[in-house]
Amino acid sequence: AEDTGVRVELAEEDHGRKSSIALRLWVEDPKKLKGKPKDNGAIEFTFDLEKETPDDVAQEMIDSGFFHENDLKIVAKSIRDRVALILWRRERIWPRMQ
Amino acid sequence: SSFTQVVHSAGRRFIVSPVPESRLKDQ
């Protein structure tokens, strides 16, 4: 995944069972964003791998004032890349459970 | 504590905490 300047990591151990999982997002390189992020704190949130899309969360983060609306794509892509990695890893480690 | 919580109208909670210095690229 290309470096968007926004980092998204698991905020808990993933055992492949739960559909909703805690993620943590923070800005690693503000220069890569179009707008100025509100503050460089880490934002932790729960994401439902089955029901939700990264764009939903990115839009809610913008609504909540964390990011400028011009950064919707970058934030959504950062979340999407991490979610894809989580699903890929689940498929490899717990194929029968998926 | 240095945690703040923001609840979006759709119900999702965002919990903001300081990023460890070590995780921030050189600005």
What do you see in this structure?
The complex is a heterodimer of chains A (98) and B (27). Chain A has helices at residues 54-63, 72-93, and strands at residues 6-10, 20-27, 41-48. Chain A is of the alpha+beta class and 98 residues long. Chain A has a three-stranded antiparallel β-sheet with strand order 1-2-3, covered by helices on one side. In chain A, helix 1 runs antiparallel to helix 2 (72-93). Chain A is elongated, with a radius of gyration of 14 Å. Chain B has a two-stranded antiparallel ribbon with strand order 1-2. Chain B is mainly β and 27 residues long. In chain B, strand 1 and strand 2 (13-18) form a beta hairpin. Chains A and B meet through strand 3 and helix 1 of A and strand 2 of B. Strand 3 (41-48) of chain A pairs antiparallel with strand 2 (13-18) of chain B.
Describe this structure in a few short sentences.
By secondary structure, chain A is of the alpha+beta class. Chain A is built from 2 helices and 3 strands; from the N terminus they run βββαα. With 27 residues, chain B is mainly β.
Jot down its keywords.
heterodimer; A: 98 residues; alpha+beta; three-stranded antiparallel beta sheet; 2 helices; 33% helix; 21% strand; elongated; B: 27 residues; mainly beta; two-stranded antiparallel ribbon; 37% strand
